[in-house]
Each structure stands twice: as C-alpha cells, then as structure tokens.
C-alpha cells in the first residue's frame, strides 16, 4: 500500500482559485481594429495540415473577441495577485480601508522608495476580479479586502488561508513549465521530458527536495490546506448517521484524520484505520474513537470485518496502474459482506465537457487536471472511467456525491448482483 499527500477547495474559495488558475498566453497587448477582424492573422503553427477555415460572421467575431482577450490576459490578474500576496498587502489591510500612501508606508524596508503609482494600478486591477473594493474620495483612492481577498491573510486563527496556494501556483518553476507545454505536446526534443523538467532542468521531486525552502514550504502548505478542507467537505456531503452501529475501515488512513473527524461527530460509527504495519508502528496514539490496524490492502485477510470500506485518494492514477486498482477493489470485495459498501473519495471529471461552462467546480477540476500534466501526474478519471473500473472489480456505482471540494467527490459502490 502507498500513502500520499492529499488534495480541496470549499465552494466559498472557488473564485480565488479560478483567478489563480486562469493562466493565459504571455504576449504583448495589441489593439485590433474592426477592419482587421476578417483578415488572416499570422500564426506560429508548424502543422503540416491546413484545415478548411471556419468562417464566422462579423457579428459573431465581435462577440467572441472580448472573451478571448479576457482569457489571454487572465494571467495579468494572476501575477498581480501574487505581487500583493508577496508584498503582504492583505495582512497590511486586514479589516481596514487604507489609501495607497498608507499601505506604502508598510511595504518594503525603511530605505525603499515604494512606487505608489505601480501599487495603485495593481490594486485597481484586483478590484476588477473581486479581491479588493475601492473608494475614491478627496482625490485619493482607498482599498479594503472583499471576503475573497480576506482569505489571503496569513494571520487569522481558524480562517482558511490561500496565500500559499497563490505563491505555489504562481512561482517561477511552475509558471515557466506552462511555456514548455507546446513542445511537450508536439514531442519536440526528448519526447518524454515533462514540461516541469524541461523548464527547470530537474524533475519536480528533485526540485522540491533540493535547497528550495520557500518553494517547499508553499507546496507543503498548499497540500495541507487541500487535505484539511477535504475533511470537512466529506463530513458534510455524506449521511454518516446512516452508518450508526456499523463499522467503517479507512484503508490508507495514515494517522486517522478522516476517521477521527467521523468518530467525533458521529460516535455511533465504529471507526478503524488500516495502513501498513510500519506506518501503524510509527503512529502516535490513535485519536479517541479510532482503532489503528496494520495490514495490506492486497490481502483481504488483513482487512478487519466491516460494513463499509472508505478510501480517499488511494485509487488515484498516480498511485497505481488500472490492474492494481482493480486488484485493490477486488480485495475489498472479498473482505466485505454481501451488502457491503465501498466509499471512494476522488475527483470525478464529467464525461461531457460543456463549452464555456460557468460551473466553478467543473472549471477547477479541469484546471487541476491540466496542472498535474506539467509534473507528469496521471489524469483524473471521468465518471465513465470510474464506472468501468468498478464493473471490472465486481461493483456497480450506487451514487456519485459532489462535495464542496472539487478534488474529492464521494463515489459509493455496491457489490454487483451475482
């Protein structure tokens, strides 16, 4: 069995994730005249095939230009966001409304001369994407945080902080990786060399394992934020009361984070965490209401008698190939009674991609799937692929329950009739 770092995102956090996740092309801004709409624009495509062009009307072209310009310039807002986070502006503002000069007095070292014009223009850009609010009084601009912007503060106890997410996604190693995506797709150079590796000269594992403490800290804080948020999302999405008097085994549950939360809120549910014997031996004392058991997911005889098996991010494609994933599910099948249930916490991509979908949960899943591509992580499964995997292991999907975390739907499996 393998354990690995876990992923999230509450629906209240999605606007900020979408801003950070929208990474467009990096090019100089140009003005296109109306008369140029119908003309052919030179491209850098190296394609050997010339398809018949899709010709659209002038009205359709005009209607389509603004969304395309906004998408292509979306990285302006992403980089502006990173700049204010790096300067500590959200913590400087807090609950206050401050002028640019007031903020500038807290930015930089004592001998630095803050460029107030650049600061004001950056802040005004972030007003347009919902991070800040602005006022214009007495010939001066003043700014305050919106609810979304408040999540960038680093010093509020009990409140989520997305500043590490911004720092992680927007720092140069990952940003530069996007620039190598075209060559990776086209198979140029060393064909299997990943975008991250091409951009940085080392793999992501090597980079974060080297002397890059800030990058490693941002990455670890990001993973912790995702994992912690998923716990609450899972508690709210599933009817755990329906399992009162029953036993749930969390396979690959590590030190019992999920089961501890379940046991605390639903004490009538018996909670067991199964992980490798060496993990259990090195674990601290189990949380109240949780039992630790050493075992092997491939050996059903080591799985305690139970009614439900729970697995979060254990069947991710980056963990196992499809045959191994089927074997894991078959092992669970053998360990469960005839009416037993498997609950899988994983991302689920839709089978059909609606053009221009405004569903933020869906958008973020697709962003994350493409993001994982940069570092060589396998893609997320679609609903159809989950159905196929379940069927090959002897199950049917009873339901797929969305949570407030796009990275963690709950896939509920029942044994298929024999």
Order of the strands making up the biggest sheet: 6-5-4-7-8-10-9
Helix content: 40-55%
Look at the structure and name the CATH superfamily of the domain at 227-415: Vaccinia Virus protein VP39
Radius of gyration: 25 Å
Q: Which structural class fits the helix and strand makeup? A: alpha/beta
Tertiary shape: globular
Assigned CATH architecture of the domain at 227-415: 3-Layer(aba) Sandwich
What is the N-to-C order of secondary-structure elements (H for helix, E for strand)?
A: HHHHEHHEEHHHHHHHEHEHEEHEHHEE
In percent terms, what proportion of residues is strand? 5-15%
Q: What's the mean pLDDT score?
A: 87
Roughly how many Å apart are the termini?
28 Å
Tell me the major beta sheet: 7 strands, mixed
The CATH class of the domain at 227-415, by name, is Alpha Beta
Low-confidence stretches: 1-12, 23-43
CATH topology title of the domain at 227-415: Rossmann fold
**Number of helical stretches of at least 4 residues:** 18
How many E-type strands?
A: 10
